[in-house]
What we know:
By secondary structure, the chain is mostly helical. Among the domains are: 1-110; 318-465, Tetratricopeptide repeat domain (Serine Threonine Protein Phosphatase 5, Tetratricopeptide repeat, Alpha Horseshoe), CATH 1.25.40. It contains 20 helices and no strands. It has helices at 3-12, 14-23, 25-45, 50-63, 67-87, 89-109, 113-133, 135-155, 159-179, 181-201, 205-225, 227-247, 251-271, 273-293, 297-317, 319-339, 343-363, 365-385, 389-409, 411-431. The protein is globular. Mean pLDDT is 80; it is low at 1-64, 435-458 and 469-475.
Amino acid sequence: xxxxxxxxxxxxxxxxxxxxxxxxxxxxxxxxxxxxxxxxxxxxxxxxxxxxxxxxxxxxxxxxxxxxxxxxxxxxxxxxxxxxxxxxxxxxxxxxxxxxxxxxxxxxxxxxxxxxxxxxxxxxxxxxxxxxxxxxxxxxxxxxxxxxxxxxxxxxxxxxxxxxxxxxxxxxxxxxxxxxxxxxxxxxxxxxxxxxxxxxxxxxxxxxxxxxxxxxxxxxxxxxxxxxxxxxxxxxxxxxxxxxxxxxxxxxxxxxxxxxxxxxxxxxxxxxxxxxxxxxxxxxxxxxxxxxxxxxxxxxxxxxxxxxxxxxxxxxxxxxxxxxxxxxxxxxxxxxxxxxxxxxxxxxxxxxxxxxxxxxxxxxxxxxxxxxxxxxxxxxxxxxxxxxxxxxxxxxxxxxxxxxxxxxxxxxxxxxxxxxxxxxxxxxxxxxxxxxxxxxxxxxxxxxxxxxxxxxxxxxxxxxxxxxxxxxxxx
Length: 475
């Protein structure tokens, strides 16, 4: 292999480049530039396979925040695959389907969700055809693509369709795992984790709990045999198990599950902080929330503050990767401080979070405007707690304006949020001696019970991230 081809081969190996980045983050940018140069050189020498180096190169580019360039790379790869598939579909349609799967990932990263959904939907169509003709080869690809389709449908607010897709994917993984458990049980476990999330989103909490409980059982077995690979997956599944147990009011069991997840994350972070410290910080955030639910407020505050400290350190090094999560944890730190009566500190924390969310929303409104609106609602509560009613009114009005815009674009997702914000606006107006009537349109769908107006301020849900098991693009 000539030097250029060798360099391009190494650039295409995402695992090796990701490992390099984790071990030597300061060297990764220089390595990436070398990779890009090698890919360019190889493209001139390998005209019939240039889609490979271009297609694979888009993934490390995205990992250092160059998302648009990564998307442009996979767009070119898809165009080349389409041309090849028109001339020789038997050979090149599978490659087109894989490239479309990758393109869906990249589009979701830049929040072009409709296009992302269209790409993975097209990929699923191809994999269905392949699996009918050759199930041994392509049924695993179809199962994985259905999992990714479920993510896209969920992001578009089509919860029942997302549930149907992941249910189908799980059924295929069960069939595959019965025949080849060593190969396909991990895929079944990951899909069960994601099935649990989809079931919870439509209020089927007991079924959701059963799915994640089964997944945790598999991940425990995998982690005993291969801890380096599967302990992170076990921790992720335990986090979701805690959420499901809480949803059915088994709070102490939920607390035990998230405690175990934190213990696993600590072990991983001690061995490899660059890879696992963000996950430990997020687990501590969720532990803080869970401790608050059982009335252990001081312990919850300590857990949340530890997570904030980790994300501050991470955001100083790589702000594009970690500033969003720092803002999330500051929002929740504000809640923990308020729970123990430290209202001024709680206000300072939410003010800092809002500064970050404003900056993020200016750059990517589709991604971060909902978080900004939610943080403004929390800020209004903190301001009222310190008797700054007029400023609180300004904050909740701004939140309502954002939720109106969001609900207009995506009512299934954001109408309940708008209802909660309007309720809190009504309470805030009453607090400053004004009156506001929330008008409910008879043309809208029935509001869920949690979104109906009340005479008290509705506590805003915690900002949290529900992990899903990753379904990486194929290479």
